[in-house]
Specification:
Number of helices: 56
Helix content: 55-70%
Structural class: mainly alpha
Strand content: under 5%
């Protein structure tokens, strides 16, 4: 059989004129072409002579693998007859291209092609010869046309070599000549090349190399098009390069796209994203391209992209990538203009060190979530490795001298940048995280020279605070408004360096802090806290929430001042930082987790903080304010009386038709003016009082946050308790919320205090229970309750004086699960999940059952009646509960028991309430089979074996079997269920619930399955089958019975491996017949009865709670006729089918846990989330739009030609299925009514018809009127 590629050679008729000779063969003894062409040879034409001569030159070039020393001969041939020369080149190239591909010769042919294409390097040199430029352009144009034609050839080896040929010609042709080509030809070439480059052909030979050549051709054309400024073509090519760079799976393609792109301010942001590429070659290519392929300077790039380059490049784990980034940044930032050595240079060749910090631009990046990391990497990897030790220390000395001057001149922007530089430099030296001269340590720095003194730092803080007090209006610039707190934040970092220097000796050890230094530092901190006006703007901001998190750069409170941060979000954070620094000063050293401060240091810290907080509102100040307030109130009362008297007199005069005197009118106007003045004083006094309260409570709040559990001094309880208790009922929400939070932080240290103050939190929640949206005070109170329960275990106890309070608390928390404020619902849900996971609740079944009902009351698509915020919170609630149920039963068998009983409680409530028609309207929508199927799957043995940390088989416990026993007890025990409606509904539920139980796990789990089957399971199923035979629903029961009987036979006869299936089935029938003949009534264990009693109590309790639910009150006006009627057999069958479909959709195959199929979204770290938000805001601000898309497109991450994945339409399918079910129900009801009418008209005829085919009627599940069987028929017995 011939080679398929040989068959493809003549498929293209356009090549018939080119294929004139057989493939070229080389000779080792090729003669030298030194003599001139003899034109007088009559046997050959000029065209043939040129071709033969060029062929001989090529043979010599093959031997030497180069066209060196043959430039003259090639030039002579070209000038002799350019047309013949062009044709000769085409002939030789096509001969090489058309050689059949064989695996053993493929490499030789490619090398042969590469050697010949070097002839274009010789042709390029002929451009310098006079009068040859036009001829060469014509030759190259001919070659471009031919090579482009061959790229369309079907044989891949030919098209691949054609791209190599086309690339060689395009690279030689001048850009001007390319731009002068016909527009149609030029457009066809780059369009075809772009299409080919974007098409990744799997398993194609040389596909990658051809795509790379197509990219280079397009890039060359793009450079040529720029000469004529055809922007639409430039954008087209650039967009396709960007698309391939961002989406292509081949790293060599992404790498070539980066190298071929024209890097400008528009394209650089996209290229910078490849600094996180999975391939180190691509990442390295980014920095190389930025260094050599663009004229855009580093300082001209957007500052956020600069931060990405620093963060990703200098923190890369590959040394080559990291070094490429370093070289690029050093070359762009550190080297002075005119110095181009490409690396580290002497200090004379470098820019001033302070000037290099402008690359980060702190004024616009101080809020970036990773600005601290970027600054640290930049200084450690660039500055400390580029500049010498002397230069670094000299820069630090300059900064220490200049910062007091900048503070006095109020140049706060420059002052902030200098403080950041100084802080990071000292931090790097302190950590010894540098490569400076060996032996240089932090203790070698001099105080006052390299580290600012206490007076310098105190002067900076005083100047900033004074400037804030002197400002009448808020600065319009955001940075100008934030810079005071940023400067103070950096000063506290410098205080930390100063403290380390003061307590460090020359050997690197630590000394005790002197008393004078201690007094000076504490005095400075007291002065900072006493500047109340500095915090007024934050306190007066109505839109600011009081719930803050700590600075994201700080990993722990104890190391807050060791981890350098730059940006903070509000001024109150400075209170926390100042208290932490004060703790360091009092303890002299930072505490580790395992250490405890000496009692003297701890008492000193508490005494200092106590004095600072109490000094905010001294007794003398309060007495003076009280006296002033009394005087103002007396004045107000006086002027009110005067205004009333004068108004009455003027009214009497005007009623008799006379005009009042002018003096009387002036006196009234004066009284009104004075009254307004003193009322304004009262308002300002109240506002000042409010600000002082917020400031004092904030200090208490952050003090309590900085103290670990068990370390709070007893003396602080009465001191702070008086202040807190006086404000927990304050009318102002902010003050009340702060007081409640302080009380919560105080009560977690003492259990008795928590039990004493618990009523305060509960009263706050009850007070706002009627509000649709709760205030911050209620949110704080709820958090304090859950924190106290978590720490003190309040709900774990019973049998003491707090039982009434404990019962009231349980009722209150249960109601919050369905509060009108969905934020409160979310907090209650999260709190319950944490308490249940940590085992901090006694008898947790009721709470778990509430969570079950809360989760299933709405599907994820049933949020139409909620607004956007409520939908978001409701979705978060469902995700929280789903994650809780995913991990809860995997922790221990006790957790499985709790989930098992909670499942029964929720199912019992749903079925009984529907039977009695008093169910909650929202819970009436729950598909009880979907609920049962999803929860029972979590308790299956195979899920336990795969995910849990314990083994149910070792315990001999099967929860599927336990479900069966409990439900069977409710069905078969005549005393279990009260009304016939309840028994009917439970019977209909139970028979369908068997489809969701995996009873096949019993032989694997139960320790003595054979004995259990004979003594309990076999007679139980006989009793169940007899019970459901009356309802004509015994088919499902009999199926499960036969399966368990067969598993019993296999277990009993496990030695007989050759036993056939029909033999097992026959033996199983015999075992079942024995149970039928015995007709034994099973006796259930006491656990089943106790669970049933618990179910009754839960039902009654839920009915009581239901009256208080706000959602239930909105539904109470509904008529009884609007409530859902008890379900029929058909209704239960339909619900069961829908539930099975949903479970299979979420967990296809062998029922893995439903939560695994619908995992919650991974938590996004706050830094990443804030960075994304920051980038989005920056894009909107700059109106930075991507380049217009045109030309061929393909979906992201999918090769062209591949079909897109099928789109799931589960929601539409479910809606369609529901509509079909409704239509079917209507049709069935209609047919049923018609049959009943016919039955009433001719009853005897129907009976006769059924009696003829009794088995058929039994299969249909229809009872025979008047017929009663004497003996029971075995399942499926013919």
């Amino acid at each position: 059989m011939s080679d398929p590629e040989d068959q493809q050679e003549n498929e293209n008729p356009e090549l018939e004129n080119i294929q004139t000779e057989p493939p070229l063969t080389t000779s080792k003894h090729a003669s030298s072409v030194s003599s001139k062409i003899k034109t007088e040879d009559k046997g050959l034409t000029m065209k043939d002579q040129v071709r033969e001569t060029l062929n001989e030159l090529f043979k010599q070039a093959i031997v030497g693998r180069s066209w060196k020393n043959k430039e003259q001969e090639v030039g002579n041939l070209l000038r002799l007859d350019s047309t013949a020369f062009a044709q000769a080149v085409i002939t030789i190239v096509t001969k090489i291209m058309l050689v059949p591909t064989q695996s053993s010769k493929q490499k030789t042919i490619d090398e042969l092609m590469g050697v010949f294409l070097k002839i274009y390097e010789v042709i390029e040199k002929q451009f310098r010869v006079a009068h040859c430029e036009d001829k060469i352009k014509a030759i190259l144009q001919t070659h471009i046309d031919t090579a482009f034609l061959l790229t369309h050839y079907k044989a891949k080896n030919i098209s691949t070599r054609a791209y190599a040929w086309l690339e060689a010609v395009i690279n030689v042709m001048p850009l001007g000549a390319i731009s002068d080509m016909k527009r149609k030809i030029l457009k066809s070439i780059f369009t075809h090349c772009l299409q080919f480059a974007m098409t990744d052909i799997p398993n194609a030979k040389n596909s990658d190399s051809s795509r790379i050549q197509a990219i280079r051709i397009s890039s060359r054309i793009c450079k040529a098009i720029k000469i004529k400024g055809k922007q639409e073509y430039i954008d087209l090519i650039t967009n396709h390069f960007l698309k391939m760079m961002l989406e292509d799976e081949k790293e060599i393609v992404r790498q070539e796209c980066i190298n071929s792109l024209d890097l400008s301010l528009k394209t650089i942001p996209y290229v910078v994203t490849r600094t996180m590429d999975k391939s180190k070659l691509v990442r390295q290519e980014v920095y190389k391209a930025l260094k050599s392929n663009t004229k855009v300077q580093f300082m001209e790039i957007d500052v956020l992209d600069r931060l990405q380059i620093i963060l990703n490049g200098l923190n890369d784990h590959e040394p080559d990538v990291k070094e490429a980034c370093r070289e690029y940044i050093i070359n762009q930032v550190c080297l002075s203009k005119g110095s181009d050595n490409g690396g580290e240079g002497s200090d004379e060749q470098l820019e001033p060190m302070i000037k290099t910090m402008r690359a980060i631009q702190f004024r616009s990046t101080y809020t970036h979530p990773k600005i601290s990391v970027a600054t640290y990497l930049y200084m450690r990897e660039i500055l400390f490795q580029t500049y010498s030790l002397d230069s670094i220390l000299e820069t630090i000395e300059k900064l220490v001298k200049i910062i007091p001057q900048l503070s006095e001149q109020k140049q706060f922007g420059e002052l902030f940048e200098c403080l950041v530089f100084l802080n990071f430099a000292l931090n790097i030296i302190k950590k010894n995280d540098h490569q400076l001269t060996s032996g240089f340590q932090f203790q070698n720095l001099e105080l006052g020279v390299h580290v600012p003194t206490l007076d310098n730092l105190k002067g900076i803080i005083d100047q900033v605070l004074a400037d804030c007090e002197g400002q009448d209006a808020v600065p319009s610039d955001e940075f100008a408004e934030m810079v005071p707190r940023l400067i103070i934040f950096q000063c506290f970092h410098l205080f930390n360096h100063l403290l380390a220097k003061l307590t460090m000796n020359a050997q690197g050890g630590r000394n005790a802090l002197s008393e004078d230094d201690f007094c000076n530092i504490t005095g400075m901190i007291k002065g900072f806290f006493n500047s109340k006006t500095f915090f007024e703007r934050d306190y007066l901001n109505e839109n600011r929430s009081i719930q803050f998190d700590y600075v994201e750069q700080m990993q722990a409170e104890e190391t807050a001042l060791q981890e350098i941060g730059i940006g903070i979000r509000d001024q109150e954070i400075l209170i926390h930082v100042a208290l932490i620094f004060l703790q360091h000063v009092c303890f002299q050293v930072t505490l580790d987790e395992s250490e405890q401060a000496p009692n003297s240091d701890l008492e000193r810290y508490f005494q200092v903080t106590k004095d600072i907080i109490l000094d905010q509102r001294t007794i003398e100040e309060l007495d003076e304010q009280e006296k002033l307030l009394i005087k103002i109130n007396e004045k107000i009362k006086t002027y009110i009386d005067l205004q009333t008297t004068l108004s009455a007199e003027i009214s009497k005069i005007t009623t008799i038709g006379e005009q009042p005197e002018q003096g009387m009118l002036d006196k009234l106007a004066g009284a009104t003016e004075k009254l307004q003045k003193y009322q304004g004083l009262i308002m300002r006094y109240q506002q000042g009082e409010l600000l002082q309260l917020q400031h004092q409570l904030n200090m208490i709040r952050y003090l309590l946050k900085s103290i670990k559990l068990g370390m709070l001094h007893v003396q602080l309880f009465p001191t702070f308790g008086a202040i807190i208790n006086a404000n927990v009922t304050n009318k102002t929400v902010k003050v009340r919320a702060l007081a409640l939070e302080c009380l919560g932080l105080l009560t977690i240290h003492d259990k008795a205090l928590f039990e004493e103050k618990l009523r305060i939190y509960m009263d706050q929640i009850i007070e706002e229970s009627t509000l649709k949206v709760k205030t911050d005070a209620t949110i704080v109170a709820l958090k304090c309750i859950f924190d106290g329960i978590m720490i003190h275990g309040f709900l774990l106890e019973s049998g003491n004086v707090q039982d009434i309070l404990r019962q009231d608390l349980r009722k209150l928390l249960m109601k919050l699960l369905r509060d009108t404020d969905y934020n409160v619902r979310l907090l209650a849900t999260e709190g319950f999940c944490k308490l249940l996971i940590c085992e901090r609740m006694q008898n947790p079944w009721d709470f778990i059952a509430r969570l079950i009902l809360l989760y299933f009351e709405r599907s994820k698509g049933d949020f139409g009646d909620l607004n956007q915020r409520q939908q978001m919170l409701m979705l978060k609630i469902k995700e929280t509960i789903e994650e809780f149920f995913t991990f809860f039963p995997r922790l221990a068998n006790e957790r499985c028991i709790e989930l098992f009983e909670a499942t029964i409680l929720s199912i019992f409530y749903l079925i009984k309430s529907r039977a009695l028609q008093n169910s909650d309207p929202q819970w009436d929508k729950i598909n009880v089979f979907y609920l049962f199927g999803k929860l029972s799957n979590m308790l299956e043995y195979k899920q336990n074996k795969q995910y849990a940390i314990f083994d149910l088989a070792q315990l001999g416990l099967s929860y599927q079997y336990e479900f069966l026993k409990v439900f069977s007890f409710m069905i078969l025990n005549p005393e279990a269920l009260g009304t016939p409606q309840e028994k009917d509904q439970f019977a209909k539920f139970f028979v369908n619930s068997l489809n969701f139980l995996d009873l096949n796990e019993l032989p694997l789990v139960h320790t003595d399955y054979e004995r259990e089957f004979l003594t309990f399971i076999n007679p139980l199923f006989n009793q169940l089958s007899r019970f459901y035979e009356k309802l004509e629903q015994q088919a499902i029961v009999d199926t499960q019975w036969k399966s368990l009987a067969a598993s019993y036979i296999k277990k009993r006869d496990s030695d007989n491996l050759r036993q056939a299936e029909h033999e097992i089935a026959q033996k199983a029938k015999q075992i079942m017949l024995q149970a039928v003949e015995a007709a034994k009534t099973v006796e259930f264990e006491e656990d089943a009865y106790s669970i049933f009693q618990h179910c009754q109590a839960f039902y009654n309790q839920t009915q009581t709670y239901q009256r208080d639910f706000s959602e239930q009150r909105t539904q109470s006006s509904q008529d009884a006729s609007q409530r859902t009627a008890p379900h029929s057999v058909h209704d239960y069958n339909q619900q069961s089918k829908r539930a099975m479909k949903q479970l299979h959709r979420h967990a296809p195959g062998d029922h893995p846990p439903p939560q695994e199929a619908a995992k919650p979204k991974p938590h996004m770290p706050p830094a990443v989330k804030q960075e994304r938000i920051f980038n989005d805001q920056r894009m909107k601000k700059e109106n930075f739009q991507p380049l217009p898309q045109s030309g061929p497109k393909r979906p992201v991450g999918r090769p062209t030609g591949q079909k897109p994945p099928p789109v799931e339409k589960s929601v539409e399918k479910e809606k369609k299925q529901q509509s079909q079910d409704k239509k079917k129900d209507k049709k069935d009801k209609k047919n049923k009514k018609e049959k009943e009418k016919k039955k009433e008209e001719v009853p005897g005829k129907e009976v006769k018809k059924r009696s003829k085919t009794g088995n058929e009627t039994e299969k249909q599940g229809m009872p025979i009127p008047g017929e009663r069987r004497q003996t029971r028929r075995m399942p499926n017995q013919e």
